[in-house]
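ok so dumb question maybe but i'm new to this and my supervisor (M.) told me to 'just get the structure for RuvB-like helicase' and walked off. so i did the thing. is this what she meant?? sequence i used:
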Amino acid sequence: MKIEEVKSTAKIQRISAHSHIKGLGLDDGGSAMQTAAGLVGQEAAREAAGIVVDMIKSKKMAGRACLLAGPPGTGKTAIALAIAQELGSKVPFCPMVGSEVFSSEIKKTEVLMENFRRAIGLRIKETKEVYEGEVTELTPVETENPMGGYGKTVSHVIIGLKTAKGTKQLKLDPSIYESLQKEKVETGDVIYIEANSGAVKRQGRSDTFATEFDLEAEEYVPLPKGDVHKKKEVIQDVTLHDLDVANARPQGGQDILSMMGQLMKPKKTEITDKLRKEINKVVNKYIDQGIAELVPGVLFIDEVHMLDIETFTYLHRALESAIAPIVIFATNRGRCVIRGTEDIISPHGIPLDLLDRLLIIRTLPYSRVEMEQILRLRAQTEGIQIDEEALHMLGEIGTRTTLRYAVQLLTPSALTAKVNGRSVIAKDDIQEVGELFLDAKSSAKILSQHKDKYMK
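this is what came out, is it supposed to look like this??
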């Protein structure tokens, strides 16, 4: 298993609804500040989340789970994302929604296991022997083709590398010449070649050539220090799912059939349990040798009531396994039927034996003042100017309807203000937009009043 061939499978996300959240907003003593890091109110929930973050950082919480429970629009997802921000980019954070498990291509339990392994990181420290320097010469030595014909083949490559300390000439294998061509290496580039794998990495153009052109899209790097041949410690962060995918994919050659196979990829391939066990063995061996370190990350399952009884049972097993992440659930349901059963009613739609394992963090509805603070934050994030009177009115609408509806009125109101020749949202703009768009409660009221006019 070559670590350098492992590609990241992390989901790239742009969550605009929570882009203003920068952390949990706690002081040095772990107490929540009323408004900080993009979060407003929910002091008790934020302090509890702060303790969870400390436990994750001290690696005391692997294989445990907690539940964020509260009415819709009370900041459950916001707190989970704030936890991710607090942990930093080095700790894997994998968000998913309960309904994601119902895929037509792969089994429910497979989706869960895949996300479980996405949330477990592996930090690999490798000491590599590398040849590093600025390319002073690059000469392919050609010989007659042994297969006959007119073409010539490259027998070896002579490459000269220069550092601040000295120069060295290397004789390289023709396969490395192909890598050099792929990286578009030419004289004057700074490269490094790994001694054991022969992998070539172009780092940029040497800064001695910086004045060569007036305009250039090149990145200039300084001449490497030390000897050409040196030992370098490389730290790479991968997740267990990255390792699974890298090893599950058949390593195709350069022939036309394998190229076609890669183009016409079938449906999502299921990774077998046997393969995972083999990877776990390799990972455990790396950990025992001190080459790698396990980094338990966070798996965030939103709308957890959407899971059914089979997936809940599978979660038990997954949480008890030796290599398990920290799981954070979120739900806005009260007492409801567990999905996949006929008549078993349980709090939050989660079986009691799983609830028994969870630390439950409660979120409470926002007050009008807090709603106004959140709306002010959202307006700043979206680059919208709003006057105090309009903000009070939006806060009133949020209290009467929901916070989400009030936030959604911001952008249409800004456009209306622009049409009316103003750069700041006024009370009239909010009134105008409020008459055009209905909230969920008003819509439900109209439906019940005119139910005979709608199809059933």
